[in-house]
Amino acid sequence: MGSRSMGNQEGDLNDSMDDFLPLDRPRVALIGGGKIAEQHLLGLQKIGEVKLQGICDLSPALAEYTAGRFGVAKWYTDYRQMLQHGEVDVVHVLTPPATHDRIVRDCLESVCHVIVEKPAALSNQAFNELWRLAQSKGLRLIENHNYRFNAPIGRLESIARQGQIGTVEEVEVRMVLGIRGGGRYADEHLPHPSHRLPAGVVHEFISHLAYLLLNFMPVEDDDAMEVRAAWRNHGGGEFFKYDSLDALVIAGPAHGRIRFSAQQAPDCFAVTLRGSQGVANAELFHPCVTLVKERPGGQHLSPLMNAVANAGSLVGSGFGSIWSKIRNRTAYEGLQVFLAQAYQALRTGGEPPVSYRQMDRASRLIDRLLAEENRL
Q: How far apart are CA 17 and CA 60, in angstroms?
């Protein structure tokens, strides 16, 4: 394995890595060969200048197939063997969330940088233990917040930064997924591992909802936030622990809403900013951004001008969705941006695309959403 210099001491919770040793051509391995691995490998192919050393999956057929398809040097069914013999610098941990803590710890102990799918750990305490271990060894631990790098979110950030809707007073993140109607989460004969998470299948998605909310909430003191969460199982039965979440996050004058439903239709993933002078909305599954504000012509003509201004975005979204399906493009567009920035940081010793503070804040908010004392 490549040599590493020792970084910050345990307890120094920041992103500074003055002793970080840049990697010229990182040797990369993946643990987990499912659908998300395909997206990571496509991103790595675009980055180039990486050496795909190995991929591990419990299914030998899947590991061998994925290795052959993407030109990975070797495949394994035991990740410890891969870490021991694979000469690896960076490991992508792409397994079910409940396994992350143990696997990430093993990778860090093997002196490998880690890029991990969300959540990095199932509690804030467990995340910070992993972070301290990474810091003590001079290693990067980067949690994937891929939707923050999607183009509609960048456009929403620009609208807020430029003050086009005035002061942001309310942020709503809403996801609707028909996961009870079929697919990998609905098969009772082959239960998805996420059913065993503290909040069941919904737990797999709340990291995205949490980090996107915090990305736009003007919060100075996270500890002062008031959190109230209503977890429900509207569809009934014991297979799904919950299929709905409606949470309120209040921080001074700013209000936030986190909403998830498996009962509604159609599927959507939207972030809405309501400000003192307008409303901006970004849709991620069918990418578009709409902006409603006072336009030239004053109060009477603004509704018409807003309709005209937003029509192009909505029509473009419709045609864009069809074109994306033809080209096999998905809402994972931000993952490729995230990976490019992560490897740029690994090569240069620069700041990673997701900071400790961003990971820690999202993890703490999830803890509070799950806490019994905050439930409605």
A: 38
Is the C-alpha dihedral spanning 235, 256, 248, 358 positive or negative?
positive
Q: Report the distance separating Cα 211 and Cα 359, nearest Å.
A: 8
> How far apart are alpha carbons 225 and 249 in whole angstroms?
7
Beta strand ranges found along 128-198 (DSSP E): 141-143, 168-176
With left for phi above 0 and alpha for psi between -120 and 50, is residue 151 left, alpha or beta?
alpha
Under the banding of pLDDT at 50, 70 and 90, the label for residue 163 is very high
Residue 170: alpha-carbon gap to chain centroid: 21
DSSP secondary structure of 57-79: -S-HHHHHHHHHHHT-SEEES-H
C-alpha separations of 56 from 92, 202, 302, 336 in Å: 10, 26, 56, 21
Which 8-state DSSP code applies to residue 119?
A: P
Would you state the pLDDT for residue 9? Answer: 36
Comparing 77-81, 228-232, 285-289, the range with the smallest average pLDDT is 285-289
Crossing angle, helix 333-348 and helix 35-47, to 10 degrees? Answer: 50
Using DSSP, state whether 54 is helix, strand or coil: strand
Residue 371's alpha-carbon distances to 198, 228, 230, 277, in angstroms, are 10, 9, 11, 35
Write the CA distances from 283 to 116, 153, 265, 336, integer angstroms: 25, 9, 15, 19
- In the 8-state DSSP scheme, what is residue 146? G
Classify residue 223 as exposed, middle or buried by CB count within 10 Å of its CB (0-12, 13-18, 19+): exposed
Q: Which of 374, 369, 309, 366 is nearest to 126 (CA)?
A: 366
For the chain, what are the domain ranges? 27-146, 151-330
Fold of the domain spanning 151-330: Dihydrodipicolinate Reductase; domain 2 (3.30.360)
Specify the CATH number for 27-146; select among 3.50.50.60, 3.40.630.30, 1.10.3110.10, 3.40.50.720.
3.40.50.720
Question: Which has the higher per-residue pLDDT, 222 or 167?
Answer: 167
Q: What is the pLDDT of residues 287-337, one digit of tens each?
A: 999 998 776 666 655 666 656 665 766 555 544 544 444 344 457 999 999
Nearest-5° Cα angle at 114, 108 to 112: 45
